[in-house]
Amino acid sequence: MCVSSAVEFAPSVKMLALALSFLSVLLLVLLCFAVAIVRNHNYLKAVPKPPGHWILGHLLEFGDPTDFLKKASNCASNYGGLMRICLPPSWTVVVITDRDVTKKIFEETIDKSTDYDYFKPWLGTGLLTSKGDKWKQRRRLLAPCFGSLELMKGFISVFETLGVELIAKLQNEDGNTNLDLIPFMKRYTLDVLCETSMGVPLTSDGESYRESLENLCGVLVNRLKVPYKRIDSLFRLTEDYHIQKRSIKVIDSFFDEIFEKKLKLLNEGRTNNGKRLAFLDLLMEFYKTGELTKEDIRAEVNTIMFGGHDTTAAGLAFTLYTLANNSHVQEKVVEEQLSIFGTLKNVPQQTFEDIQQMKYLEMVIYEALRLYPPIPVIARQLPNDIDLGDMVLPKDLNVIVFIYGAHHDPVYFPDPEKFIPERFENGEVLPFTHFPYSIGQRSCIGKKFGLIEMKSCLSKIVRNFKLLPSVPLSEPMLVHELTLTSLNGVKISVERRE
């Protein structure tokens, strides 16, 4: 064989080897899929299943994203709180709203489903994505930070300052009969998180950070919804992959700059130049002792920014929407504010103690989070077989705990579509039926922080504005993305209180 022929032949051999390797991997993956399908079918055949198409499964019944939550909620209720649905090309999904099964899942399972792996390029293996012993160790380490009463009290000044800025922006909307709350609430919550988690304001120089955060959320939604983007090798061929890389680079650079400043202060024996502490300041102490690396801290800060951004914004927007459309409830909230402050105008800075007195407002928030849970579904991967008596949920199965469905189940909440804050007045709500912040060992570590933030913000808004239904009346078109959102916004009318 001549030299030129050998040179031409070599690439062909390499390409053939690559093709065979790819084919072998594909066949192995398909074989694993087939084994899992057969195994799960054998285990899950006792789980009730709504009628569906033999090929399309339940795609025709549940394929409309704007109708999915209500249809799936009604269906889960009709099937006793436990059912399986198939939405090709995904696996069969077990959907749970029954409180006894939910309790068992949360008591025996701490690992998130494999879907959360898509968050790792951005969030690393922090509290949201880590599993097993690593998650337990990290949770024990961080719990005191989020439970610190002094830290929470220190954050009140942030809520106040940024709340005043929010009120000024809303005053420009005085008389607006079709105000979409989502953009205002997103900006407020992101500003709050930036100052409380990293200790810096998100000024105009931080717009690239804000934009990158929104872009990453969009990429994650696409990965979860578009089947071929779930495959890493195919995802790398898409524009979303490049958006993800650029966005992570911006977010990492923003963090690196702040981290280096904090590290310099730490090395000089100073904490924060006498300023209010942020979560990052507490995490730096763990860096000093060697309990956390820089990458560990990056993962936790990014997790805080992601986990507390859209969720609290959605909670605020939907609570304001319910107040605007339930004037009698709004008046009770206003009366409570008057009883605490004696006036609605020229109120001095709220204190932690003031916020603790807002008991009725707290019930309003809980009821709004029941109707519109910011995280409508959460997924768990079973660490072992779970015996339910008449059936077994197999090890490694990914199950959906359907928070929205549980919150709208008439067995637990009579007249579930009605807004009745008094449901939460006497502690009569059953455990494992209302869990907007999840529940059990893996419940949201920042739920106390989020509740205080919401109460502070809502208090300011209701003291300054009368909230009314939008004109024309706009009912949210609810869809489940990373958080609960509305395709047509969350709209109300606002009028300044004189």
Automatic annotation (TrEMBL):
Record-linked InterPro entries: Cyt_P450, Cyt_P450_E_grp-I, Cyt_P450_sf, Cytochrome_P450_Monoox
Protein name, entry field: Cytochrome P450
GO MF: heme binding; iron ion binding; monooxygenase activity; oxidoreductase activity, acting on paired donors, with incorporation or reduction of molecular oxygen
Family: Belongs to the cytochrome P450 family.
Residues where heme binds: 444
Keywords: Heme, Iron, Metal-binding, Monooxygenase, Oxidoreductase
Cofactor (UniProt): heme
Superkingdom classification of source: Eukaryota
